[in-house]
Amino acid sequence: MLEHKEWAESIARSVARAWNMDWKLDGLDGAALEALIFCSRRFEPARGIPFRGYARKRIHEASTEAARKSKGWRRVSSSASKVEQEAREISAELFNIFPELRSGELPLAEETHGDAEHEVRTAIRHLIVGATIVAAKQGVGTAPPDEIVDYKRLISKIAMLEPIHQTMIWKIYWEGESMRTVASEWDTDELNVIREHKVILTWLLKSLSTSKEIQKPRVRPGLRHIALKLKRTMTEGQFSKFVSRV
Amino acid sequence: MTKKIGDKKLGGVKSTTHATEVDTTRPVGSVTSIKPAGGVGGITGPSAIGKRRATRLMTLEEREQLLQMINEEADKMFKSGVIPPQKKEVVAKAVKMAIDASILTEKETTQPDKEKKRSGKDTTQEE
Q: What is the pLDDT of residue A224?
């Protein structure tokens, strides 16, 4: 465990650096070490996964949780700007929407086509669209009227999606469910949810940047049975309802 | 004329002597040559299909470049109307924070799990 101590501390420091916090004063160091101890006890070498690959997500999660509970997180409302505070909240949610980030990876597409820079930029665009949806969720209800109009545009686009896609966005962004939870609720592979989420973000990106109507994404075969079930039980998606109410 | 099963009764095996006569083995000479791969239709070339990606960690060296890319992409998306004007700064900052918090403060050059396996030590017992 000692050989991984510095590495675990480095994870805590990177979280503190990004959120402009003090990794020791705000208790990120202790949380990271506790998570390291927990992981070293539960680690099963027989599974063939390298220890760091196994432990990194958990240590990162422990560090971010400690940061969010710390005085430093609350302190931001008085000392730092409103933008900084809002950005922190959104970025904290991005870790649940793009869990690859906790492992130090960009949420790249599953398959590679050879153009590395294009793939990195696509991942960044997905992150930006994801962050925009989180901002919309946080802003609806509290934002001034001019901002509400912008959110309405985004939400209207989401409302055009199939009910299953609307439900997916609703569960992940509005209810804060992880993709794994959504997948297990739907009794399907997590990869189906992760890949479908990326398809939806790509469509949103295209759809928002043009006035033309873009054909909405089809439901992938692995989710069709859920889509059919939802169509039978739901008359309209959560966002469609929302748009018709506003 | 076809014989009916009932025409002649089977009276048992008379002798096994015929089984001893094994024909001489002959070399197999009629194997068709292997057709060139080009003749196989329907398989797409590697450039047309995506290859499965190996996972790749973001590094401290590319941090600045990634943060710069976020600015560039946010600008583009703001111009094309994807990001609401009031939210451009917050959204870009949030993505920068998320990426920055995922890049370790130190170089990830040491991977004890791999290094020790290479040197023959059993790392698994230490965990």
A: 94
Q: Domain range spanning residue B67?
A: 60-104
- Asked if residue A60 lies in contact with residue A11, where contact means CB atoms within 8 angstroms, the answer is yes
Residue B49 lies in a domain: no
- What part of A 155-214 touches B (C-beta under 8 Å)? 204-205, 208-210
Q: pLDDT tens across B35-62, in order?
A: 444 444 444 444 444 555 556 789 888 9
**Least CB-CB distance to B124: which of A45, A132, A153?**
A45
Chain A nearest-CA distance from B29, in A, is 45
Tens digits of per-residue pLDDT, A148-175?
777 888 889 999 999 999 999 999 999 9
Q: How is residue A127 written in tokens?
A: 């992150």
Q: Which residue does chain A place closest to B84, by CA atoms?
A: A150
Nearest-angstrom CA–CA distance, B66 and B83? 19
Give the number of domains in chain B.
Answer: 1
B58 burial level (CB within 10 Å; 0-12, 13-18, 19+): buried
Is residue B106 less than 8 Å (CB to CB) from chain A? Answer: yes
**Cα of A39 vs its chain's centroid, Å:** 23
Cβ–Cβ gap A131/B111 under 8 Å: no
Q: Which of B53, B96, B97, B116 to mutate to test the interface with A (most CBs of A within 10 A)?
A: B97
Q: Is residue B71 part of a domain?
A: yes
Q: Do A17 and B101 touch (CB under 8 A)?
A: yes
pLDDT greater than 90 at residue B67: yes
The whole-number average pLDDT for the span A20-39 is 92
Cross-strand bridge partners of residue B52? A111
**Chain position carrying tokens 């039978």:** A232
Residue from the list B84, B90, B104 with its beta carbon closest to the beta carbon of A14: B104
Q: Is the pTM of this model over 0.90?
A: no
